[in-house]
Amino acid sequence: MTETPPAAPGLLTLAEVEATARTAHEGQTDKAGRPYAEHLAAVADGVRARGGDAEQIAAAWLHDAVEDAALSRAWLAGAALTPRTKAIVDAVTKRPGEAPAAYARRILDTPGALLVKEADLAHNADAKRLAVLDEPTRKRLTEKYAHLRALLGLPQS
């Protein structure tokens, strides 16, 4: 494993971003009832394994924070993060009522966001995670993830 370079002066370190994300999502669980921080860690690890940089890893830790209302848009705007990390988090944050095609376009138009979303989709679509869900939920989510992968030009898993 490679060492993470230190954050620029005044910016949150990856360890601080991780702690912030874990605290923000404390008490939340995923659809399978697992602590939500497990998903965040898996996405961050997936970004790292795919060659992502520190800004993308930071965004992976925060990728659901605004969408899930764990942190506000105002927090993100004022956070001690690089503009690129903020842009990636914003890009992968779904808006209420947003069409999947518009969501995919924003991800594709934001440098670095596709890798974060790819890692997120990979963990969301993991067969072991889906296996514990009821059949209608599993089917709905599998189709949703496949559709988004197609819109993003990612191979089907």
In short:
With 157 residues, the protein is mainly alpha-helical.
Indicate the topology.
Layout: H1 14-24, H2 36-49, H3 54-62, H4 73-78, H5 83-92, H6 100-109, H7 113-124, H8 127-131, H9 135-152
Helix pairs in contact: 1-3, 2-3, 2-7, 3-5, 3-7, 5-7, 6-9
Describe the protein's architecture and organization.
The chain has 157 residues and is mostly helical. It has 9 helices and no strands. The longest helix is centred in the last third of the chain and has 18 residues, at 135-152. The two termini are 25 Å apart. 31% of the residues are buried. The mean pLDDT is 93.
Number of strands: 0
**What's the pLDDT, averaged over the residues?**
93
* Proportion of residues in helical segments: 55-70%
- Report strand %: under 5%
Oligomer state equals: single chain
What characterizes the major β-sheet? none
The arrangement of helices and strands along the chain is HHHHHHHHH
Structural class: mainly alpha
Label the overall shape: globular
- In the predicted model, the low-confidence regions spanning at least 5 consecutive residues are none
**What is the C-alpha radius of gyration, as a whole number of Å?**
15 Å
> In DSSP terms, counting alpha (H) and pi (I) runs of 4 or more, how many helices?
9
User: What gap, in angstroms, lies between the N and C termini?
Assistant: 25 Å
Give short descriptive properties of this protein.
157 residues, mainly alpha, 9 helices, 61% helix, 0% strand, globular
